[in-house]
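Progress against Task 2.4 (sequence-to-structure conversion) is shown through the following example record, which the project officer requested during the mid-term review.
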Amino acid sequence: MTDLKDLYAIAKKRGSKIVSAESCTAGLLAACLTEMPGSSAFFEQGYITYSNRSKISVLGVDKKTLEKHGAVSEEVAKQMAEGALNRSMGTIAISITGIAGPGGSDYKPEGLVCFAIAKKNGKIRVETVEYGPLVRNNIRSSAVIKAIELLHEELSVT
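Structure tokens generated for the chain above:
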């Protein structure tokens, strides 16, 4: 796992302002990113958009995208990250949307989590991970760890 201190150091060095848009993790990523004193130097804000209605009204996710692909999709994760970035003073935004469980379907099983990162330079990265039925808290924790790793990777790119 990426050390949070490393992420803090690179974000501060680059003058990055991180924004989070969370659904299934419900603010756990923002809480983790603000653990250490001084995190306000690089953490701009976080959005918790648990319902589809909040994804639409708060982040500007297109209702048609939600209807066509569902909340747990790379398409929605992308729009969540773009919306968070465009509605903030951030330089990089990360979104997380998934099925923490219990439950799921054959098409979208428990443990399916989609991530997206949007940068001010227009670059967008999406990724999906299937954690499997790890139990709700473990899926959420795993998603936060992955999000931190993705942020570190994207901030390390020159």
